[in-house]
Every structure is written in structure tokens, then in C-alpha cells.
Amino acid sequence: MEQNTTVDTNFFLVCGLGSLGQYCVSVLKEFGVKVNAIEATNFSKWEIPDLPDLVDQLVIGDCRQPKILEQAGIRQCRAILIVTSDERINIAAAFAARSLNPHVRLVVRSAQANLNDLLSENLGNFVAFDATQLPAKSFALAALSNETIGFFTLENQLLRVFKVTIDASHRWSNHLQLFQINSIHRRVITHTRARKPLPQGFYQWEPDAPALPGETIAYIEATENLITHSKRPDTNLRQLWRGIMANMKWRSFRNRLTQFWEESSQTRRVGVVSTVLMVNLFCCGTLLYKLHYPQITWQNAFNIALVMMIGGYGDLFGELEMTSDLPWWLYLFNISLTVAGTVFVGILYALMAERILSAKFQFSKGRRLPVPKTDHVVLIGLGRVGQLVAQLLQELKQPFVGVNSTDLELGILSRIPLITGNIQNALSRVNITTAKSVIVVTDDEVANLEIALKAHTVNPKANLVIRTFDPRFSENISQLLPYAKVLGVYALAAEAFVGAAFGENILNVFRLDNQTILVTEYQIETDDTLNGRLLAEIAYGYGVVPIFHSRASRKVPKFMPSDDIELAVGDRLIVLATIEGLQRVEQGAIAIPEWQVLVKKAFSSEAAFAGASVISRVSGCDMHLARTLMNQLPGILKYPLYKHQAHRLVSELSKSQVLAQIIEADE
Fold first, then answer.
1. Residue 211: which CATH number?
2. What secondary structure does DSSP assign to 257-284, as a single string?
3. Could you read off the pLDDT of 310-337 as tens digits, one per residue?
4. How remote is the C-alpha of 121 from its chain's centroid?
């Protein structure tokens, strides 16, 4: 008899209640869904104290066993999160779950990128994440004191998230209203007034407010197309040719030569001078032999000069008949050429020996590169998280020094400054007093706190980034050390796992104003809560920031798309969202618009005609309603809008010579 396989869209299963699994359960319960869990053993202590109350049903057993999965409700659940610490168990459990429920969404913890791709193709409805890789970028970016707080790539386009504090000299200071900062390649995310609490969520700012000194603005910008940047268009060939011709001028050549000489070592200078001297002597010798003995060919003259230069004086003059009438000055030149050639060969041997010895010394020295002197990052702890952070710092070209209790395996981060041994003693050897940031990411959170406190004592101005695990411990540290950035690895990763469990593809994660921001992809389907809505409704109603939109029928996607776009089945949408925003989208809990637009006057009949089109396009209302309003001015658009949407409508109407203003909607 076939068992019931009806899927409950509010039922999820978590396999493995380690640190990551517990956080996943906690985040899932924020969505108000039913959560069952499977754990190999019954814990007596939990990192999240109230976790047993959050789990609807806890099954003790091996999640790879079909009987255990069925007992936990695998046939009815919408998604299963397999997040044990053993990747082999996770993969085996994924196959078992798929055999029991062909439609369940599989969210697996795995760091095997190639295997994950193959499993995605064969299992279907499958996504895998590396729990340590997801938050690594947050650690790296938290240590940087510059304005960049996040970066990622979409469709070969580099997008960066910036957070800037406005001062009197800033180009936006006092001159621009916040909505004017938005452009075809930029979107404002948050705006924080001086000495005011950090905003929770997006759009907590007034569109017509000016950017004042002391305020902070976070925004995302599509900064660089990686393809067009690497491939210069043909129209730039003329500029390239001009640059080449400019570099061929004597003044430019002289400047480059001077710079080369000043930056060269003593050994390189000796090599350059001797090479130039020998080339001149060789050319002179060839010319002199040809002039003095016209009967020989240029090739013979060339060979004679070459033989003399490499020490063949005795062999050459012992066989040539022309030595009897050789003039004394050419005789002295031959001797000089032979001596110079011998010395030059000796110099070449010396240079080659020096290079070989230097390379051997560098090889034996391995990764023992010099520690940066100032404005660097001190990275303490080079486990999996620390190694990923180190790689990101290298990509960002940020000087840093690694500190680890033991040496790393051969081939792992082989070209970084590294201090090994007792970490407490190592702090005195990393120039910590001049460092700009200290990242502490060992596997012991108590040791992380101790090291961070010692680092802060030595350098109070350095940015402190601390890795933690226990949520209570993290909260206490954050309260006691307000100057530190306390990041929990599994707390950050859990939000990405949970977001993926609801069917969304989490492309990236970064931190902004103590919130985790998820770069989330949606594929619009028929029964989707986003289908048929304007991007304005999605942005302001659900509290997300659309940054990318594409239609299946169009090859060219749009970055920072217009609010006027209406989504359709098959569209692809990428947004910035908090976990609360994803929850609202999942539940279809869209905010109610509370603003209206009072249209006062159109300055001409053409303006009235254009105004109706603008109203219909921006608000999404029926064209007949817009025409009727423009024929009965002044009047109120009986179509509630969100504040940012209403403000944009007033701005667009003003461009069409129509006067309007925002008013609160009637209750």
C-alpha cells in the first residue's frame, strides 16, 4: 500500500544538532514552522538553552537509516537540512532522503565543491554550503577599516557594498537628497543619522532628506564589468598607440631609465653596466676587423669578435695568417676584448650563483616572509576559517601576518608572513602596536577573548574581530566589549542554510549594522508570492533591495532595476534581504501602503497626457484611473502607495510638468 506523501509546506527536518544544527532550528522557528530533528545521541547540554522546546519532535538515531528518516517525517517535510559535522554522513543521508521523498528539498553541509555540483545534477532540488566558507568573508571585511563591507560577482559584474560617513568635504554633503544618490548603477541601503540608533532593516530613511555631515550611508554599486574591463574595445586602439608613441619620447625614456637605475640593486647595476660595455666592445671589434681586413666577410668579422670575447685569443691568433701585419692598436684591442670577455663571463657566473643561492634560501625559508611594519592585519588562528580569511585578505591585497600555534602543511598559504608557536608570546613579534586590525579565529572562544583583550591593551585603536560559538557568550562579549566585532560562525551560516531551505538560492552573505544580509536569488514561478508584482511593491512591501533582474526572453540583464518592472513567470530576481525579509516573502506578509499622491496641476494638455502615463507606470494602477484623475484636477490618486514609491511618483510627475505632493492615505 502506497504511503501518504503529501508535503506540508510548514514542516522542516534538521539532521544533526551540533552548533550549526541548533542555530538552524532556532532560525527556522522564527518563521513559525514545524521543525523535527534527528540526532545520533541525546544531548544533556545545549548551546541554545531552550532548543528542546523549539524542536517539535526529536528522533534519536542515524539519519542515514530510512527507518529513522521515516520516523522523523521525511515523506511529509518540505525540506531537510543535513548539517552534521561528518560530510560522508551528510551525503549518504541525502541519498537516503531522496529515495524516500523525490520532491523534498535537500540542503546539505559539504565543502566538496566538485562533488556538490555532481550531486546537484543527479539528485535535483539540492544545494550545499560550506559552513566555514560562508562567514569567512564577514571576518575579512570586518577587519578592514576602509569603506568596503561586502563584494560579490553577478553575471561577470563586480558589485561592492560601501558604508561611508559623510563629512563637509564629501561630494554628497548638503547638496543631494538621499533619493538622488540612487542611479542606474547604485542603490542606497541604509541611512543612519548622527548619534541615532542603527536602523533595523532597509528603507528606514526619508527620500527627500539631505545627506548631512556626520551621517552614515550604506549603498551597493555595480562598479566594474569584468569582461569589458579585461577586453578593451577597438575604439581604444588609437589611445593605445598614442600611449606607446608617448613612451618612446626621449624624456619619457630618460625618466624610466632613471627610475629603473634608482630602484635596482647593486648586483643588477653591475650586470647592466657590464652587459652594455660588452655589447659596445663586440660591435666595435666587428667593425674594426671588417675595416682593417676588407677581404673578409661581415660574418667572419662577427665570428672573430665573438671568439675574442669568449677567451679565444690564443686559438685565433695561432691560426690566422694576418697576425704578422696586425697593427699594435688592434693587437691591444684584442687583448682588452679577451680580458673584458673573461671578466664578463665571471660576472655572469657570479650572478647566476647568487640567484641560485637566493632561490635555495627562499625555498628553505618557506613562508617566513617579513612581517609588515604598519597598517596591517594580524590574523590569529589559521584553521579552516582562518585560512579562508587569509585567502580573502590576499585577494583584497591587504597586508597581513598570520599567527598559529603550529606550522602549516606544505603548500597551504606558503607565501604569507607567518609566526608559529605560543600565540601569547607571538603577539610581540607581529608589530601589533601599528596594526590596524586584529582577527582572532582560533577554535577556542575563551582563548579568542583572552587574546583580543591583550591585543586591545597593546593597541586600543585597532579593529577587533572575535570568533565565537556560544550565543550567550557572544551576547555577553558584545555588551562588555562594544569596540569589538563579535561574529558567531554558525550563527552567520545558519541563516544562509535556512534561507536555502525555503527554496531560495543564497549567493552571498555579509554583515551590515549588526545584521546578516543575504544576497538571495528567486526564480519566479506561477504560484510565487512575487509573481505579478511591481518591484516597488516587492522592495518596500517586503523590505528587500532588488539589485538584479532578467527575463528569459532577454539576453541582457538589468542591474539596479527600475521600480516599475512587473515580475512574470520565468523571471530571475536577486535581492539583498535580511532573514526577516525572507520570512515576509515566504509568508506573503507584504506591508500595507499608507501614502497617497495629491495631483494639483498640469501646466499643459501635453503634461496632463504624459502625467497619466507616469502615474500608471510608477503606481501600477489602471490607465483609465490615471486618465480620469488627470481630467479632474486637482485630485487624489485613490491608489495607496509606499512612501518611497509615492515620492518617486511626485518626482517623475514634476519632470512632466505636473505639480503633485505626498499625503497620508485615508483610513
1. 3.30.70.1450
2. HHHHHHHS-HHHHHHHHHHHHHHHHHHH
3. 666 555 555 545 445 667 676 677 677 7
4. 26
Looking at residue 596, its pLDDT comes to 92
Range list of β-strands (E), 489-619: 505-512, 515-523, 545-550, 558-559, 572-577, 595-602
Predicted pLDDT of residue 368: 58
In this structure, the answer to whether residues 342 and 395 fall within a common structural domain is no
Same domain as 280, residue 168? no
Model pLDDT, residue 627: 92
- 398 and 435 belong to one structural domain: yes
CA angle 51, 56, 61 (to 5 degrees): 85
Please tell me the predicted confidence (pLDDT) of residue 496. Answer: 81
Question: Are 391 and 412 in the same domain?
Answer: yes
Does residue 115 form part of some domain? yes
Q: How many CB atoms lie within 10 A of CB 588?
A: 11
Q: Is 143 found in the same domain as 108? A: no
pLDDT at 229: 42
CA distance 259 to 246: 17
Name residue 60's beta-bridge partners: 39
Residue ending a domain, among 130, 164, 193, is 130
Predicted TM-score (pTM) of the model is 0.62
Q: Residue 55: CB partners within 8 Å, gap ≥ 6?
A: 25, 35, 36, 37
Query: Which residues of the chain register pLDDT less than 70?
Result: 1-9, 44, 145-146, 175, 224-268, 307-326, 328, 330-331, 334, 354-368, 410-412, 414, 504, 667
Q: Looking at residue 265, what is its pLDDT?
A: 59
Q: Give the domain extent around 171.
A: 136-230
Q: Are 290 and 361 in a shared domain?
A: yes
- CA-CA distance, 280 to 309, in Å (whole number)? 11
Residues contacting 256, CB < 8 A, separation 6+: 247
Q: Which three cell numbers stand for residue 539?
A: 522592495
Of 365, 394, 412, the last residue of a domain is: 365
In a domain? residue 66: yes
Is residue 533 in a domain? Answer: no
- Residue identified by cell 653596466 is 273
Q: What pLDDT score was predicted for residue 3?
A: 46
CA dihedral 601, 602, 603, 604 (to 10 degrees): -150
Are 659 and 601 a contacting pair, CB within 8 Å?
yes
The count of C-alpha atoms lying within 13 angstroms of the C-alpha of 430, restricted to the half-sphere facing its C-beta, is 32
Grid cell 608570546 in the structure block, residue: 425
pLDDT value for 18: 86
Number of domains present in the structure of the chain: 6
